[in-house]
Design brief:
Number of domains: 2
CATH superfamily of the largest domain: Alpha/Beta hydrolase fold, catalytic domain
Strand order of the largest sheet: 1-2-4-3-5-6-7-10-9-8
Helix content: 10-25%
Structural class: alpha+beta
Radius of gyration: 22 Å
Strand content: 15-25%
CATH architecture of the largest domain: 3-Layer(aba) Sandwich
Oligomer: single chain
CATH class of the largest domain: Alpha Beta
Largest sheet: 10 strands, mixed
Number of strands: 22
């Protein structure tokens, strides 16, 4: 029998034990509602928390509540550790609030499951845009986390806006697109019961259909699930792993497995550090009751909200020595950073191409950190600082979007953005476009200088 949205919301509320949760008195004075924040087709409420001491270039966390929840309940209840960490590290929190009956977020309808489709995700992205402008947010450190319905939304947002979110942390969720329905209902019993199983490629295709034509990198993903969860059943955990490893070009074999606590099994994929590409934590003997005490501290570190740079990001350094007439070779591809056909037109986008040693692959690194070719400078298009910004050539201006650090770990980072020179989509083929992306340690962001 199909469950109604209201019944599902009530079941989640009781299962999670949120009925008795109340925000401490101080929350009312610090959590602020924002009106008129932009396009809001589903009439969501927006709340924001900015600590008394906010960083000059803060990270931004989008924190999404569970069914029958609210912004104040998650902020003052089981999401409170995120707010405490914000006080410590100076980041900003945006809290969307569903206003429909049941207070669940729509991750089911066709509007909800496409970029800028007019669903809840559209309103949430208006909140993100408002906060980015209001607080001078670091575009490389916009992240999302959510619990239950909010975890499902975190998956959807990461799939629909991979060029905005650097990372996500989902507690008791399902893969992006799993909850899709065709009858207007917001509840999918097949998905909630864990009866939808697909291949990694199929799950990745579901996510990619939410942002057709996108070829860039997808966010890092942290997944949490209890083994005895019957509200959003435990098999969904493995389906999420399939989806996010595939989207990030990884196989299903963990790079590292450990047990941070006795009942936890943590697997990491792609890399083994605190900010692995995909991290999955299974909690033995636990139902739909996440997060539990201590878990959000792990999420804060994974999301990079504690002010620590990702493991692959280089420390500030002095300019590398000038180099002339060198090739810049991608570690992952073995191909060269190439100016297509030796073009000299402003705006020509750089690519990977077989190394052949011609003038279109011969770069000069100057004493003021410029990379020049054919009398032009390597340039972050439009002075962009967001993931996916095109890397082009342009008339040399001396501005910081044309300055680059050649780092000892093999990365090349923009002085203005701090982002890495990146082969889009971890591509290795001739013609792969070059872009800026948050540093994550992948071989598509590592380069060797050759004479």
């Amino acid at each position: 029998m199909k469950r109604t949205l209201a019944a599902a919301a009530a079941a989640v509320l009781v299962t999670l034990g949120f009925v008795a949760v109340a925000a401490p008195p101080a929350s009312a004075a610090t959590l602020t509602q924002v009106a008129n924040f932009g396009n809001n087709p589903t009439n969501l409420n927006m709340y924001v928390y900015a600590p008394d001491t906010t960083a000059s270039r803060p990270a931004l966390l989008v924190l999404v509540h569970y069914c029958s929840g609210s912004a104040s309940a998650i902020f003052g209840g089981n999401g409170r550790d995120f707010a405490t960490a914000a006080d410590r590290h100076g980041y900003v929190i945006v809290l969307p609030e569903a206003t429909r009956s049941g207070h669940c977020f729509d991750v089911s309808t066709s509007q909800a499951l496409r970029r800028d489709g007019g669903g809840d995700s559209t309103g949430i992205m208006s909140m993100v845009s408002w906060a980015r402008t209001r607080y001078n947010v670091d575009p490389a450190r916009i992240v999302v986390s959510g619990f239950s319905s909010g975890a499902m939304m975190a998956n959807v947002l990461a799939a629909e806006y991979p060029d905005v979110f650097a990372a996500a942390s989902a507690f008791s969720g399902v893969p992006a697109g799993c909850f899709a329905t065709g009858d207007g209902s917001l509840w999918n019993s097949q998905c909630s019961s864990g009866n939808i199983s697909r291949t990694p490629q199929q799950w990745a295709d579901v996510a990619r259909a939410m942002y057709p034509g996108y070829t860039g990198r997808y966010p890092r993903m942290q997944l949490w699930h209890g083994t005895t969860d019957t509200t959003l059943a435990y098999p969904n955990f493995n389906e999420e792993i399939k989806q996010w490893t595939q989207l990030n070009g990884l196989n299903q074999t963990p790079a590292h497995t450990d047990h941070p606590q006795a009942s936890w099994t943590r697997t990491r994929y792609g890399s083994t550090g605190t900010q692995a590409t995909v991290e999955a934590v299974s909690i033995s003997g636990t139902g739909h009751t996440l997060p539990q005490v201590g878990m959000l501290a792990y999420a804060v570190s994974f999301l990079g909200l504690d002010g620590g740079a990702p493991p692959s990001s280089p420390p500030p350094s002095s300019p590398a020595p000038s180099r002339s007439n060198v090739m810049i070779v991608g570690t992952g591809s073995g191909r060269c950073l190439d100016d297509p056909n030796g073009a000299t037109a402003n705006g020509t986008r750089m690519q990977l191409y077989d190394c052949w040693g011609g003038a279109s692959q011969r770069w000069t690194y100057t004493s003021n950190r410029q990379l020049t070719i054919a009398g032009k400078c390597l340039d972050a298009s439009g002075r962009g600082t967001a993931n996916g910004t095109a890397v082009i050539i342009w008339d040399c201006s001396g501005q910081s979007n044309q300055q680059w650090n050649l780092n000892t770990n093999g990365t090349i980072t923009g002085v203005q953005s701090g982002l890495c020179l990146d082969a889009a989509g971890a591509g290795t083929a001739n013609g792969t476009r070059i872009q800026l992306w948050g540093c994550h340690g992948g071989t598509n962001q590592q380069w060797t200088i050759r004479n």
